[in-house]
Fold each of these.
Amino acid sequence: EVQLVESGGGVVRPGGSLRLSCAASGFTFAGYGMTWVRQAPGKGLEWVSGINWNGGSTGYADSVKGRFTISRDNAKNSLYLQMNSLRAEDTALYHCARAGYDFWSVPLGPWGQGTLVTVSS
Amino acid sequence: QTVVTQEPSLSVSPGGTVTLTCGLRSGSVSTSYYPSWYQQTPGQAPRTLIYSTNTRSSGVPDRFSGSILGNKAALTITGAQADDESDYYCVLYMGSGISVFGGGTKLTVL
């Protein structure tokens, strides 16, 4: 069974940092791009970041560029999102989702259930 | 700032047909934008319905179909059922590794 499980969320003060992880299983992780998508409470989906199969290409939404860094470890079947200089508006449920090989910034699924990040003083 | 537009809300009668659209505030949507569609019910993770304009994800019934209609991407639900009542989102690929979601459409089946 293909499965994605996020972890690493929590409560952090404005200006703080968090590192999210996404553990993948049930498929050849190195054969796919991966994405992070977030959803603020009561709001819609927002694409955050994407990474190609080997980590050589990445993309970021303007809202997080320069503050967030996406990475992956194919040996560990894991995706990461390093989040620095966090702001209140980064409060959201963060999902990882499998993407394609070519269009590696487009979530194709499956999706993880998400990990909640709350930025509050 | 790229803005992807969707109808905020739509309604359909059980058994009816409804079309949701996904456009750009500036410009036309084509297959090059690799339009994809997602369904989300409250408290659940999104589910991918359609990718690359009109390819159904595994397990998605064929009453969901994707297309380009005029200058927008479209998701058509034929023979709507009660459990189709959900939020629907589209995403467009903007190039350079960037994708953008639309604001979502809340579909009511009544």
Amino acid sequence: SSELTQDPAVSVALGQTVRITCQGDSLRTYHASWYQQRPGQAPILVIYGTNYRPSGIPDRFSGSRSGNTASLTIIGAQAEDEADYFCSSRDSSGNHLWVFGGGTKLTVL
Amino acid sequence: QVHLQESGPGLVKPSETLSLSCTVSGGSISSGGYYWNWIRQRPGKGLEWIGYIHYSGSTYYNPSLKSRATISRDTSKNHFSLKLTSVAAADTALYYCARQFMDPSKGDWFDLWGQGTLVTVSS
């Protein structure tokens, strides 16, 4: 199966912009989704279909893709955005098999 | 509002069968076109997709589990379950249930997750 690679940790100053990336061959073909997970809590979907935001997710969250890299951008990061973020897509085989990135811990300074 | 909650033993002995349930409240698992999944996170590792049961009852599994996984459902109790046979220490993980939607143009995503339940495999 294919793999998705994320930076383990990223930090951002309060109110600034941060981009979290996810790299993998499957992303050339399949959409990425992004999830936020705070300690001890269930993951929350923040982006699907590469760049769609579910209702209830603040518009400071956005997604994009370039080649084999998907990105989650937070414009004007808030303290409550401090969490783990992980990406997911269908495996590059196209079969019903899904892969996840290792997760990026976002620290808001 | 739909809510998912995992339940099951927190400790399983090696070579035995791990059994978990996911109770869904606020919505039916047999309607709506959704896929009901099990996903796990082993210590220090990323997430691993285990398999799903579709609202129609069809199932699909990660080949890496070598046919050890079985997902079933009880529509009368509105829950779905995971059985993983012949467990070993490597199956120690936080197990999540999650609802998934597939769209022809926007792809697939897991829109609701349970809190997760920790299962340790140890004698």
